[in-house]
Amino acid sequence: MNRILTARDVQRVEAAEHWRQGGVETIDTPDAGRIVVKGQRPARNPRLYTALNTCARLLGVPYLKAAPLTGGAASQATEVARLRTLRAAGVRVPQVLHVADQWFAMQWLGTWPLAVVLRRRELHGGALWRAAGNEMLYIHRAGQYLGQAFARNMMVGDDRRLAGMIDFEDDPLLVMSLEDAQARNWLEYVHSTMWLAPLPLPEMDDALDAWLTGETPGVRQRFAHACQRLAWLRCLPSQPIFGRDIIALQAAAAAAHRWLRRHRI
User: Fold this and answer.
1) Side-chain-facing half-sphere of 23: CA atoms under 13 Å
2) Phi, psi angles (nearest 5°) of residue 113
3) Is 33 left (phi over 0), alpha (psi -120 to 50) or beta?
4) Which range is least confidently modeled, 66-70, 88-92, 109-113, 177-181?
5) Cα 139 to chain center, whole Å?
C-alpha cells in the first residue's frame, strides 16, 4: 500500500530547516509518522572526480571511477528514479512518499547504518554483515546494482535486522556497464567492512567466495582483475595511528590477496 504525505505532513516538512541546507532530516509528521526528508545538494567538487578517476586509471581498475553527481534537481530526479526502480524490482529501499521542487520525502528505515553497528562490535554484527551480502547478491540477480555499496548506506532497523539500502544520488551506469557496477559493489562492500572484521576472517572469506560464486562470470572476472591490481596494497600499515582510510584499504587489499591465493590466480 502506497503512503503519501497529507497537507499537514507537507506543512511540517516545509517548516523544518536542516534539509534546506542540502541535508538529510528525520521528521515526525502528523499523519505519515516518521519520515526522512532529503534536500537538494550542490554539485560535487569536480576536483574530487578528477582525483578519483586518476586513481582508478593508475590502479588499472576502471570500474572504481566516479559516477557524476550533478547536484540540484538532476541528482534528486536520479535518486527518486533509482529508488522507484529498485523498489519495483523487490529491493529493500525506502519508499518515495513525496517529491517537491527542493526536496523529497522517503520512508524511514532505521536509526543506525551497518557501519556504526560493526564499529561498535555488537553481537549481531556478523549476522547483519552476512545479510547485507546476501541482499546485494539478490539485487544483482534481479539485474540491479547499488550506487555506493558501503556499509554506511545499509540501514539497520529497530528489530536489529537489515532494513534496506540508501543513497542513490549518482548512477554508475552513466559511466560503466552493469557488470562493472556490480563488481564495484563488491569492492565497496569489502573495503567498508573487512577492516572491522565482524566475523573470523576465514568465515568472511568463505562468505565472499559463496557470493561471488553466485555472480555472473563477468562480475567474477572483474572482481578477480581488481584483486590482482589491488592486492599489493596489503603492504600498507594497519596500525590505528594511520587512520581509518588506510586501515580499511589495507584490510580490503589483504582480503583481495587471500582471494587470489584461494583461487590460485
Assistant:
1) 10
2) -70, 155
3) left
4) 66-70
5) 12
Quick one: which H or E segment has residue 37?
A: strand 33-39
CA-to-CA dists, residue 69 to 38, 119, 168, 196, angstroms = 15, 28, 10, 28
Between CA 166 and CA 173, with CA 169 as vertex, the angle to 5 degrees is 105
The CA angle 234-59-253, to the nearest 5 degrees, is: 20
The CA–CA distances, whole Å, from 61 to 65, 167, 186, 229 equal 8, 23, 13, 7
d(CA 167, CA 17): 21
Between CA 111 and CA 155 the distance in angstroms is 7
For residue 4, name the pLDDT band (cuts at 50, 70, 90): confident
Say which amino acid occupies 73. A
Whether 31 and 9 have beta carbons less than 8 Å apart is answered as: yes
Tell me, what's the pLDDT at 1?
Answer: 38
Ranking 29-38, 52-61, 74-83, 112-121 by mean pLDDT, the lowest is 52-61
Ramachandran angles phi, psi of 143, nearest 5°? 80, 20
The C-alpha cell 573495503 sits at 191
Q: Identify the DSSP state of 22.
A: T
pLDDT class of 52 with cuts at 50, 70, 90: confident
